[in-house]
Every structure is written in C-alpha cells, then in structure tokens.
C-alpha cells in the first residue's frame, strides 16, 4: 500500500518505514499521523512480518509536530478533535519495532522515537523537547517517557530549557540502546530487526508486554504478570521446539503457535 508521507518496504520478515516529508524535516502533520496509524496497523496484522524499523532521513528523524499546522488551532480544535490521539494506536502495536534515529528528533519526533520498543541512534542524532520555546509543552508523552528514560534531572532540564541531547549523552543517560556511525545506522537497525524477527513470534510479543509492564505497575504485580506469561508460553509449540532445538544443537523452527 502507498502512503502520502511514508515510504514502506519489506525486507523478508522486517518492515521498514521511512518518514518522507523532506521539505519539512519530517514534521509530523495530521497526514503523517494518519499514515503511521495505518502502516503500523498493517504491520501488526500481517503474519509474515515480525519486526519493524521506523526511520527518517540523515538530517532529521522528525523535527517535531508540524508547527505550521498547529499554529491556527485553538484549545477547542485540539481537544475537540483529540488531535494527537492516533499515536495511542501506534503505541498499542503488539509486535516489536525499533526507531532508527539520525539527525533531529525534536518535540513530537523525540516523542515518536520514544514510543518505539527501543532506539538505535546515529552519532549525528540530537534529541530534544523544545516545546517550551513555543509556549507549550510536550503533548505526545514526552514529559512522561523522557522522564522514565533519563530520570527527572535531565528530563526537567531538557523540558525547561529546550536544550538538545546528543547521541553520546543519550546513550549514557539510557534514552537509546546503542549509538552507531551514521553511515551504518540502517544496516544495524535492519540487522537487529532481523534477529528479532528470527525469534519465536509469541515469545517476542510476550517479552515486549512484560518489559512494558514495568512502566505501568508495581514490582510484585509486574513479576506476577511476567510469571503468568512465562507459564502460558510453556503451553506453546514454540516452547517445545525451542528447548528441543537447544538440546539437539540446531536452530528452532517456529510456528507462532
Ligand atoms: C513545521 C518545520 C518544523 C516543524 C522544521 N520545519 N521543523 N515545519 N514544523 N516542527 C521546516 C522549516 O520551517 C523549514 O521550512 C524546513 O523545515 C527546514 O527547516 P530549517 O529551520 O530551515 O532547518 P535548520 O535551519 O537546519 O534548522 C533545523 C531545526 C529547526 C533546528 C530542526 O527547523 C527547528 O528548530 N525546528 C522546530 C523544532 C521544534 O520546535 N520542534 C517541536 C515542535 S512542537 P521552510 O518552508 O521555511 O524552508 C511539537 C509538539 C509535540 O513537536 C506535541 C504535540 C501534542
């Protein structure tokens, strides 16, 4: 399927989505939101696809929500239309996905990257929540996800001053899983996505659910949730296959069942 603001291709079991509004540094207007919702839903529903990489351009992953589109909108417009609600559907994606970030990931761009299961950054990446400079604040989860990722001190400093965080600091602060040279970003992201795609698909979803539960619940409830998922996976054909494959020193052949 073709999208107005995205380029989508498949590499075997890996879906690659590129944000494609180069004239606006991939600013996230409502068409991008609509396209992302549709593309992520299509990925989640396609049983041949097991991991996804979302990326932008060399210069910008995304420079934020589209300021020119937001400029004339009032409280009633935003609230009435529930303007950014589509991104809740993106975060509801059950299967794994990685954000591969080069250049600017600012405002909504940083927030979109933080919706990913994890971020791989090029050494050129710059993260920021500069909404304060526009008289607003993050509105797609930035104040919450950034704080959970890097802690209060850095999140508060970034939100209050609008300063950018470079890739090295983002890695040491825990915002990104790994930094790689810009020229190798996409290859590395696709390689990791392929490795994830090679895992048992139900186990991939369960691992994602369990890690995400750590952000939503107490330790004891989270451990309980994890144990129930573990026990449940013991009833799958892929658990039987995975453990047999280990004993027989071969690769598992997954059925997703
Ligand atoms: C609309 C944008 C844009 C944005 C860049 N552009 N960012 N258009 N919305 N967020 C456009 C510019 O207007 C310009 O178009 C073109 O992209 C190239 O940008 P330049 O500014 O000329 O590039 P450069 O000088 O290299 O500066 C790059 C930049 C700067 C530092 C990233 O563009 C910038 O500060 N952008 C805004 C960053 C920001 O404030 N993001 C947060 C947005 S608020 P023209 O037509 O002039 O050539 C947000 C809220 C989210 O995200 C929460 C919502 C609920």
Automatic annotation (TrEMBL):
The keyword Lyase applies. SUPFAM superfamilies: ClpP/crotonase. Its EC number is 4.2.1.17. InterPro entries: ClpP/crotonase-like_dom_sf, Enoyl-CoA_hyd/isom_CS, Enoyl-CoA_hydra/iso, Enoyl-CoA_hydra_C. One of its GO terms (molecular function) is enoyl-CoA hydratase activity. It catalyses: a 4-saturated-(3S)-3-hydroxyacyl-CoA = a (3E)-enoyl-CoA + H2O; a (3S)-3-hydroxyacyl-CoA = a (2E)-enoyl-CoA + H2O. Pfam families: ECH_1 (PF00378). Could possibly oxidize fatty acids using specific components. Belongs to the enoyl-CoA hydratase/isomerase family. This is enoyl-CoA hydratase.
